[in-house]
Write a structure and sequence with these properties.
Helices cover 35% and strands 20% of the residues. It is α/β, with parallel strands linked by helices. It is elongated, with a radius of gyration of 24 Å. The protein binds ligand BES, manganese (II) ion and zinc ion (ZN).
Length: 492
């Protein structure tokens, strides 16, 4: 993906395109007059005549000869007082698409001068940097065929804001987030015959050598030897070697790290509890949590914040085979607790529980946040708009909710409690791996909670948010924005 060159302090810069915010009544944001004093009359006429509606999502490109910038992109923001975050972001995306379809190479972007109620200039700079950098992303793996890599004409974007450390940091964070998201998207879009556990491990090693992270990869024999009976039970049905992928970023002094754990099922067939055939291809994104961990690490590598973070990814396929686990099988997890596997399709929790135990034993983290495409039930409960959040520590949950509000990569908390935990009762082991259809996302989290009793822990169910189906089928890069924001918030 091409990296745009972002900068602040517009008066010092040359630009060939002006991106101008317009409100529903035809008024330009006042910042525009500093750069193009004579534009208001023309825009008022365009709005009055119905040639431009100035609604969020609408844009109009004016190409002019003579003095001033060659292009002016009018970007509708609707009614100023009613500008919501959702509408603002849809305007940014529409602007990015319009720029992409133009000859713009250097743009002065005045959209950041406008903010929805309750949000400030640095927020808007961050969102603009993120959206415009994201618009350069296209899935371009060799298996897609040629000519898919985007080749944007845009090189540089300038914001009309003071070049101070706050604005600078906002801009860098927005761009680093988009760069991290692109890695997450690439991995989740990649078919499972390419994106194997070994490929995820190699990606981690590459990030390690680029940015200086320590990496450590465990293979099947080591993990069997260590007693990861639950993770290895899922992996035993596949010929493709499983991996436990560990990365550590040391940006702080020797304080305990924050741990990110990501579900890395590179393909989920369901196993012997086989999934129906329709849309099964989408189960290549069942490593969306793992991809998010790697995307966040990419962003950390770019941003180098003063903190310590570890990433742990259990990666395997979930396959039916002559050697696969069967319903009713009982396995012993790394924690020593035994599990009756009543449904082999509830495999995410089986690999995560050993990863959570391993993370605590190895890194003694102060907090753990796991990310997993864990349950279809989460999509039924919340749709595709927010990730499910469950936590054993409300301060941690609140921090994730706040980060989600700031980035609009939102999360919604669901409860945990004994009642749901009781649904996991088994007659043949310490617990069953499913708790019935009712409250399916909560019982899945409740299962994980049994392995995180001694640590502050939060779980994000990203089944609904990591991917979009339909015509624009593909990975979204979520929840990278929220996790990056959450981590940076932990420093202040
Ligand atoms: N990977 C799936 C969850 C999923 C479903 C993610 C749809 C994204 C889209 C997970 O491993 C799974 O199969 N969960 C089961 C749990 C059930 C067997 C208790 C589910 O949601 O049906
Ligand atoms: Mn499954
Ligand atoms: Zn799964």
């Amino acid at each position: 993906m091409k990296r745009l060159s972002f900068s602040l302090n517009a008066h010092a810069q040359h630009f060939d395109t002006l991106i101008a915010p317009v409100f529903a009544d035809g008024t330009l944001d006042q910042s525009v007059s500093d750069f193009q004093a004579d534009l208001q009359d023309q825009v008022s006429q365009l709005v009055d005549s119905g040639d431009f509606s100035a609604k969020p999502g609408k844009t109009l490109l004016l190409v002019q000869t003579g003095t001033g910038p060659k292009r002016i992109l009018l970007v509708g923001l609707g009614e100023a007082e009613k500008l919501s975050v959702k509408a603002y972001l849809s305007a940014l995306k529409a602007a990015a698409t319009a720029i992409e379809n133009s000859g713009a190479q250097t743009a002065l972007n005045l959209l950041a001068q406008v903010q929805p109620n309750g949000f400030d200039l640095p927020w808007a700079i961050r969102q603009n940097a993120q959206v415009f950098q994201q618009s350069c992303y296209d899935y371009a793996h060799e298996s897609r065929g040629e000519h898919h890599a985007k080749d944007p004409k845009l090189n540089a974007m300038v914001f009309a804001a003071e070049a101070n450390p706050t604005n600078e940091a906002a801009m860098t964070q927005g761009q680093a987030t988009a760069i991290g998201m692109a890695l997450t998207q690439d991995l989740a879009n990649m078919p499972s015959n390419f994106c194997t556990p070994t490929h995820l491990a190699n990606t981690a090693k590459e990030l390690g050598s680029t940015y200086g992270f320590e990496t450590h990869i465990l293979d099947r024999e080591e993990m069997i030897e260590m007693g990861m009976g639950s993770f290895m039970a899922v992996a035993q049905g596949s010929q493709t070697p499983p991996k436990m992928i560990c990365l550590s970023y040391q940006g702080g002094s020797d304080e305990a790290p924050i741990a990110l754990v990501g579900k890395g099922v590179t393909f989920d067939t369901g196993g012997i509890s086989l999934k129906p055939g329709a849309d099964m291809d989408e189960m290549k994104y069942d490593m969306g949590g793992a991809a998010a961990v790697l995307g966040v690490f990419k962003a950390l590598g770019e941003l180098k914040p003063k903190m310590n973070v570890v990433g742990v990814i259990p990666a395997t396929e979930n396959m039916p085979s002559g050697n696969a686990i069967k319903p009713g099988d009982v396995v012993t997890s790394l924690s020593g607790q035994t599990i009756e596997i009543l449904n082999t399709d509830a495999e995410g929790r089986l690999i995560l529980c050993d990863a959570l135990t391993y993370t605590q034993q190895t890194y003694k983290p102060c907090k753990i946040v796991d990310m997993a495409t864990l349950t279809g039930a989460c999509i039924i409960a919340l749709g595709h708009h927010v990730s499910g959040l469950m936590a054993n520590d409300q301060t941690l949950a609140d921090a994730l909710i706040a980060a989600g509000q700031k980035t609009y990569d939102r999360v919604w908390q669901m409860p945990l409690g004994e009642e749901w935990d009781e649904q996991l009762k088994s007659n043949f082991a310490d617990m069953a791996n499913i708790g019935g259809r009712a409250g399916g996302s909560i019982t899945a989290a409740q299962f994980l909670a049994r392995f995180t009793k001694e640590v502050s822990w939060a779980h994000l169910d990203i089944a609904g948010t990591a991917w979009v189906s339909g015509a624009n089928k593909g990975a979204t890069g979520r929840p990278v924005p929220t996790i990056v924001q959450f981590l940076l918030d932990q420093i202040q």
